[in-house]
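User: quick one, sequence for these tokens?
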């Protein structure tokens, strides 16, 4: 599992999902950025779950 920091969020790249942790607003903004970035890729992502301080993206 790889992880990186972007602004105030911690992003974990897991086998079948991307987990973004941090303040709710920043985590949602980062999730939106990732969804847009992969929108036309072979494996686009969508929101799987949203909690107070965690957003999970999974492939469509």
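Assistant:
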């Amino acid at each position: 599992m790889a992880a990186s920091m972007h602004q105030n969020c911690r992003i974990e790249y897991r086998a079948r999902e991307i987990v973004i942790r941090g303040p709710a607003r920043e985590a949602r903004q980062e999730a939106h950025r990732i969804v847009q970035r992969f929108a036309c890729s072979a494996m686009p992502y969508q929101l799987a779950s949203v909690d107070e301080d965690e957003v999970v993206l999974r492939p469509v």
